[in-house]
Design brief:
The complex is a heterodimer. By secondary structure, chain A is an alpha/beta fold. Chain A has 15 helices and ten strands. Chain A has an eight-stranded parallel beta sheet. Chain A has a two-stranded antiparallel sheet with strand order 3-4. The relative contact order of chain B is 0.13. The chains are: A alpha/beta, B alpha/beta.
Chain lengths: 337, 209
C-alpha cells in the first residue's frame, strides 16, 4: 500500500497493511532543513523542498503546504510582523468594527499576499509525489478567519452585540476560504485541511459552534468535495468533546482530536469517522523518545479493534520539537502491523 | 444585589451599571457592591466554569460588564487602598497573544486584586523591574506559543537574583499548560484563569485586608 491508499483505507475503515501516521509537521520542516522559518513561510519553493526533505527523513504518510494562520487575513489587508525564527503575528487587522465592509471582495489566490506561494508549493509537491502520498493544503475555518480579520476580542464582542453584521462577515469569510481551498485543490492538493482554532469550545460554547459555525463549515466542505477533495479534514484543538457530534453533519471525514480528549470519548462521539490524534504537541519538545513510543503504542492499541485511525499529534508539532521524538512516533506506527 | 449579579453574569453592561446606580442611591457602599456584587458574580462564574466548560466568550462578556461597573464605581481607574494583594501580569517576549492574560486580569480585578499589567511581548528584564517596584504577591505569565518556554523557565531565577524570592510565579495558557510547574520552574501552573485566581486566594489567605 502506498500512503494515499493507506489513508483512504483508514478513512473508509478498510483493511490496512499498517496504521497511517501523519506528523503535523509544518514549520518544523524548516528547522529540519536548516532554513529560517520566515523564509519557509514566504516562499513556496522553499516550503515544498523542506517538506520533501522532512518526508525523506521521517517517512510519514502526508505532506503539508501550511504556512501559518495568517495567510488569508494578510491577503485581505492585515499587516503582519515577520520574525526570523517564529511564525508571523498580526500588527494591524484588515478590518475594524468601524469600517464599512460593503466593498469587501474575495482575494484572488493567484495574486493576493502569500496565497500564490502556497499554491506554488502544492504544485511542486503534487508533481513530486503524484498520487502516492497525500498532499495537504490548508485554509482557516470561517470563524477563525473572522477573528483574524477583526481580532479575537472585537470579533467575539461583535458576535453578541451585532449578530447580523457578524453573520454577514462570517458569510464573506466562508466565501474567501472556499475560493482559496478550491484553488488549492486546483493546484494539486488532495485536500485542504481546515484549521479552526477559534471554533474550539475553549473559545466559544458548543451552542455557538452549532448555530454559527456548523452551517458554514458544511458549505465549505461541500464545496471542497465538489471541487475534488479526496476527503474533508477538520482540525480544532482543545476540549472538543462537546462539538464532535456535529462533525458528521458538517461532512468531516477525518477529525483531529487533541490530547485533552481521550480516544474512548472521541470514538464514542464519532463512531464512523476516521480520527487522528492525539499525542500532546509539547511532548515532542519536552519528552524522551521512549515516552513518545509508549504513548503512540497505547494509541495504536486503543484503536486496534476499531480501525478508522491515523496516528498523529493533537495539533501542530512545534517547530522546535526534537527530531528523535517525531521519528519515534512514526517508527511506532511503521513497526506495528 | 441579586439583580446586579444576574446582570453581570449575562454580560449586560448597561443593566449592571443601572443596578449599581440604584444600589448607590439606596445608600449601599461601593465596597459592598464590589464584595457582595462583583465578587459574588465572579464566584458564581468560577463554579460554572469547570475546566471542560470554560470558554473565552462567556468570560469576556462577564468581564466587560465587570469592567463597566468598576469604571463607574471608580472613575479614573484608581482602586481603593484596601484592595487585595498586587499581582504583576505579562505575556512574555515573543508572544503577542494577550487575550488569556486579559481574561486573568479581569478575573483578578473582579476578585479585588490590584493588577499591574506589563502587557504582551514583555521582556524578562521589564517583568523583573516592575516586580521589584511593585512588590507583588505573585507574577502571572500567560503563553499561547511554545517558543516562549525557555524564557518562562528563567522568570523565577531572575526574580530570586533580584532578591524577590517571596514572589510566587504562576503560569497558564494553551501552550504552557501542556507542560508542568516543575518543568517550567514556576510555583503553579493554572488550568484556567479561575484556577489561577483561586491559587492566589490560597497563598494570600483570600481575605481583603
Amino acid at each position: 500500500m502506498n500512503s494515499m491508499e493507506r489513508v483512504m483505507a483508514a478513512v473508509a475503515f478498510g483493511s490496512l497493511d499498517r496504521i497511517p501516521v501523519i506528523a503535523q509537521v509544518f514549520g518544523h520542516a524548516a528547522i529540519v532543513a536548516g532554513v529560517p522559518l520566515d523564509e519557509y513561510i514566504q516562499d513556496g519553493e522553499i516550503l515544498a523542498w523542506c517538506q520533501l526533505k522532512a518526508l525523506d527523513l521521517y517517512g510519514y504518510d502526508a505532506v503539508f503546504s501550511v504556512m501559518d494562520v495568517n495567510v488569508e487575513t494578510e491577503a485581505m489587508g492585515s499587516i503582519l510582523n515577520y520574525h526570523k525564527d517564529q511564525y508571523p503575528t498580526v500588527e494591524t487587522y484588515a478590518l475594524s468594527k468601524e469600517n464599512n465592509w460593503g466593498s469587501l471582495s474575495t482575494p484572488d489566490p493567484e495574486q493576493a499576499g502569500r496565497m500564490p506561494e502556497m499554491l506554488k508549493a502544492l504544485r511542486i509537491l503534487r508533481r513530486e509525489l503524484r498520487d502516492e502520498i497525500p498532499v495537504v493544503g490548508c485554509v482557516m475555518g470561517p470563524l477563525t478567519l473572522t477573528t483574524q480579520l477583526l481580532g479575537m476580542e472585537t470579533a467575539l464582542y461583535l458576535a453578541i452585540d451585532d449578530p447580523d453584521r457578524f453573520g454577514r462577515l462570517m458569510d464573506f469569510a466562508t466565501e474567501v476560504v472556499i475560493r482559496f481551498g478550491v484553488a488549492q485543490i486546483g493546484a494539486g492538493a488532495h485536500l485542504p485541511i481546515v484549521f479552526d482554532p477559534s471554533a474550539s469550545p475553549a473559545v466559544v460554547p458548543h451552542q455557538f459552534f452549532r448555530e454559527v459555525e456548523l452551517p458554514r463549515l458544511k458549505k465549505l466542505f461541500e464545496s471542497f468535495k465538489q471541487a475534488g477533495a479526496a476527503v474533508n479534514w477538520l482540525n480544532i484543538a482543545g476540549p472538543v468533546e462537546s462539538i464532535l457530534p456535529y462533525y458528521t453533519d458538517a461532512g468531516v471525514n477525518i477529525a483531529n482530536f487533541d490530547y485533552c480528549v481521550t480516544p474512548h470519548v472521541a470514538s464514542d462521539k464519532l463512531p464512523k469517522t476516521c480520527l487522528d490524534g492525539n499525542i500532546k504537541p509539547l511532548a515532542f519538545v519536552e519528552s524522551a523518545p521512549d515516552q513518545i513510543t509508549t504513548e503512540a503504542d497505547m494509541l495504536l492499541k486503543s484503536f486496534a479493534g476499531r480501525g478508522g485511525f491515523i496516528l498523529s499529534s493533537g495539533c501542530e508539532i512545534p517547530p522546535e520539537s526534537l527530531q528523535e521524538n517525531v521519528a519515534a512516533m512514526v517508527m511506532t506506527a511503521r513497526n506495528t502491523r | 444585589m441579586d439583580a446586579l449579579i444576574n446582570a453581570l453574569l449575562v454580560g449586560n453592561g448597561a443593566d449592571s451599571i443601572a443596578h449599581s446606580q440604584r444600589l448607590l442611591h439606596a445608600g449601599v457602599s461601593v465596597e459592598r457592591i464590589v464584595i457582595e456584587g462583583i465578587e459574588e458574580a465572579m464566584t458564581s462564574l468560577d463554579e460554572k466554569c469547570t475546566v471542560s466548560q470554560f470558554n473565552l466568550l462567556e468570560i469576556m462578556l462577564v468581564g466587560r460588564s465587570v469592567t463597566d461597573v468598576m469604571n463607574y464605581l471608580y472613575p479614573g481607574g484608581s482602586l481603593p487602598a484596601g484592595s487585595k494583594d498586587t499581582v504583576v501580569l505579562a505575556t512574555m517576549e515573543g508572544d503577542i497573544h494577550d487575550l488569556g492574560k486579559n481574561i486573568l486580569k479581569t478575573v483578578l480585578m473582579g476578585k479585588g486584586y490590584r493588577v499591574v499589567d506589563c502587557g504582551k511581548d514583555c521582556p524578562l528584564q521589564k517583568l523583573v523591574d516592575v516586580s521589584e517596584k511593585e512588590s507583588p504577591l505573585a507574577v502571572g505569565i500567560s503563553g499561547l506559543v511554545t517558543s516562549i518556554i525557555p524564557l518562562v523557565k528563567q522568570v523565577r531565577g531572575s526574580l530570586r537574583a533580584r532578591g524577590l524570592e517571596q514572589v510566587k510565579v504562576m503560569a497558564g495558557g494553551a501552550a504552557l499548560k501542556q507542560s508542568s510547574a516543575e518543568r517550567l520552574h514556576v510555583d503553579y501552573l493554572a488550568e484556567t484563569a479561575f484556577d489561577g485566581a483561586n491559587y492566589l486566594d490560597r497563598i494570600s489567605g483570600g481575605a481583603i485586608p
